[in-house]
Design goal:
The chain is mainly beta and 153 residues long. The protein has one domain. Helix content is 12%, strand content 34%. The chain is built from 2 helices and 13 strands, in the order βββαββββββαββββ. Strands 4-5-6-7-13-12-11-10 form an 8-stranded antiparallel β-sheet, with helices on one face. Strands 3-2-1-8-9 form a 5-stranded mixed β-sheet. β11 and β12 form a beta hairpin. The protein is globular.
Length: 153
C-alpha cells in the first residue's frame, strides 16, 4: 500500500485537525487502530500496526483533534511512504536530504539524526548515524512526523 505524506493537510488519508472519530474511521481502513498513551499524556493516541512492520501513530490535542501523525519505517517494501514522488524510507537519509533541499528549507539537528522541514512541519528521525561507508546502521530514516501549526509551541 502507498502512504502519501501531504503536509500540512494529511498523511495516509488521515487529515490533520480532524476529530478523533473521523481519524479512527480512516485508521480502520488501514488496520486495527489501538489506543495508547505516550508517557504521561492525558489524551490517548492511536496506533495502527501493519503486517509490513509499518506503524502509523496519530496524536491528538486537548480538543481531541489530530495534531500530528507519525509513520515508523516498514520492514518490507509491501508498504511505501511517499512524499513528492520519493519513497522516504527507500532512499538513504543523505539522498533524501539532497532531494528535499531542492524545494525546501532543511534543518539538520542532532548531528544528522533529526531533519526538519520547518515550512511544512515535517520531521525525519533516525536513532544513530553510520560509522563508516559500509555501515548500514543509521543510513536510513526510521520515522517521519507531519504536524499541524502550533504542534511545536
Amino acid at each position: 500500500m502507498k502512504f502519501d505524506l501531504l503536509p500540512p493537510r494529511e498523511v495516509a488519508g488521515v487529515a490533520l485537525g480532524s476529530p478523533r472519530g473521523v481519524a479512527r474511521d480512516r485508521c480502520a481502513r488501514l488496520g486495527d487502530p489501538e489506543e495508547f498513551r505516550r508517557g504521561g499524556e492525558g489524551t490517548p493516541s492511536l496506533v495502527v500496526r501493519r503486517p509490513s512492520g509499518l506503524a502509523l501513530f496519530v496524536y491528538f490535542d486537548s480538543d481531541d483533534r489530530v495534531e500530528a501523525i507519525e509513520i515508523g519505517r516498514p520492514d518490507s517494501d509491501e508498504d511505501l511512504v511517499v512524499y513528492s514522488g520519493h519513497d522516504v524510507f527507500a532512499a538513504s537519509a543523505e539522498e533524501l536530504i539532497q532531494v528535499l533541499r531542492a524545494d525546501h528549507v532543511v534543518e539538520v539537528d542532532e548531528e544528522g539524526r533529526a531533519v526538519t522541514l520547518p515550512d511544512l512541519l515535517v520531521a525525519f528521525w533516525r536513532p544513530t548515524l553510520p560509522e563508516g561507508p559500509d555501515d548500514v546502521e543509521g543510513r536510513y530514516f526510521e520515522s517521519v512526523l507531519v504536524a499541524r501549526p502550533g504542534y511545536y509551541e
